[in-house]
Amino acid sequence: MHPxxxxxxxxxxxxxxxxxxxxxxxxxxxxxxxxxxxxxxxPIRHQVLxxxxxxxxxxxxxxxxDRIKPLQHAAKPATIYRALDFLIEQGLIHRVESLNxxxxxxxxxxxxxxxxxxxxxxxxxxxxxAPKVMTALSEEFSQAGFVAYSKAIEAQGICVKCRExxxxxx
Length: 170
Ligand SMILES: [Zn+2]
Ligand SMILES: [Zn+2]
Ligand SMILES: [Zn+2]
Description:
This protein has 170 residues and is α+β, with helices and mostly antiparallel strands. The protein has a single domain, classed as Winged helix-like DNA-binding domain superfamily/Winged helix DNA-binding domain (Arc Repressor Mutant, subunit A, Orthogonal Bundle), CATH 1.10.10.10. It has a 3-stranded mixed beta sheet with strand order 4-3-5, with no helix packed on it. It has a two-stranded antiparallel sheet with strand order 1-2. A hairpin with a 4-residue loop joins strand 1 and strand 2. Helix 3 packs across helix 4. The protein is globular, with a radius of gyration of 17 Å. It binds zinc ion (3 copies). One zinc ion binds next to loops.
């Protein structure tokens, strides 16, 4: 995603991109990867992924449960958690630890290191690979003799869209 230059200031949340495209691409990649890997994207896993991709906002597990109930009456919290675990394992979504929520992975469909920029105003999460940061972090870990399970760095703040929609105050 490039920084937007065509943001309309009349709308609080301008639609900068064709989100339907994000969703269809994400689902196509997921379906393809599952076939290649010989794992099953079951209807419930597919639905959870689709619901997470409803927007770029982080989604909590209980919100997913609420939204999936009308579609799958038998869905229980454990069903949702199992689907989430699967999607994380397959690198299709990321857990946002600081929000205890989940967001669709927009880059690769494999496990990777990343920097998550979390907007406290709109809850959107942007992921950036940030290779230089990650290399520096790896060096710190090895100097400390520390084995990291994950290398996601989460930063909280205000995203470019929210800043522009408030007229670049501050
Ligand atoms: Zn999108
Ligand atoms: Zn990702
Ligand atoms: Zn925002």
